[in-house]
Amino acid sequence: MPDRSMKGVYPILSAPINARGQLVVEDLERQVEWMIDKGVHGVGIAIATEIYKFTEEERDLILTTVVRVNNGRIKVVMNTGGEGTDAAIFLSKRAEELGADALMIRPTSFIPVPTSENVEYFVKIAESVSLPIFLQDQGTAQVPPAMAVQCAKRHENLCYIKVETPPTLPRMGETQKLAEGTGLVLFGGAGGAFAVEEFRRGSVGTMPGSTLPDMFVRVWDYYQAGDEDAAEAEMRRHGPLIQVLAQGQGLAGWIYKYIMVRRGVFSPGSDFARHPAVIPDAQQYREIDRILEELDLVGQ
Predict the structure, then answer these.
(1) Is residue 162 classed as helix, strand or coil in its secondary structure?
(2) Cα torsion through 40, 43, 280, 278, rounded to 10
(3) Which domains does the chain possess?
(4) CA–CA separation, 188 and 198 (whole Å)
(5) 168/139 Cα distance (integer angstroms)
(6) Distance between CA atoms of 11 and 13, rounded to whole angstroms?
(7) Do residues 188 and 207 touch, judged by C-beta distance below 8 A?
(8) For 39-91, how does the pLDDT look when each residue is reduced to its tens digit (9 = 90+)?
């Protein structure tokens, strides 16, 4: 029986990269400890980690580093999607061997295929591993609610969905309604921008980016305690920063890592994104600095 107990705040880690394009392992280690110290319930290695830009050897290094530093304290979710079923099975088996607690997989999207083919894609992967799998529903690779329910009925390992196809709120509500009685567990994503509203619609967790784990943990704790006003107030206070972070992944990769440097998690110079990725201009960096100073997040 797969683990359906996962819930709470599961930030997606950023990959610290230096000017030579190399992974800075020491900063990745520091990030994991920082996340745990901030009270998160799990971490993800996924699209916002730029995992699709790394070689197999680098992917293994990232996952083994996170698993080693974590040492079983929180859950580790690894993205293992691919544009072919065999490739995704290979990556999924490898992630299980290296100690991931769960997998996260998007449907194929490079060449459109019928829903039935993507359902079979998920089922064949689920049959190859013993880990729970998050179906990742994104705007460019969608898992509609009915498809998610179909997957959940086909194999018990297909028991989570990360809903982030916009608009996420009706998507979450429809998924909750259709999934009743199937055991499918709902999480939110898309930077956590609508975390509270998603909680109200059946989400039991959120997968934001790396920069605000402490804020999202407070939001989660407030909501679990029944204080929705306090949870919403936290979200509103950090609204300007959440808005900045809600940009495309090419630009967001640079911004997330810059903020991690400013918060004291990454070393200066570890804030490069893997190419291709649009680089923010100097004005945007100044705007981010002002927001971080207003929120008292510099060095925190």
Answers:
(1) strand
(2) -160
(3) 8-238 (3.20.20.70)
(4) 7
(5) 10
(6) 6
(7) yes
(8) 999 999 999 999 999 999 999 999 999 999 999 999 999 999 999 999 999 99
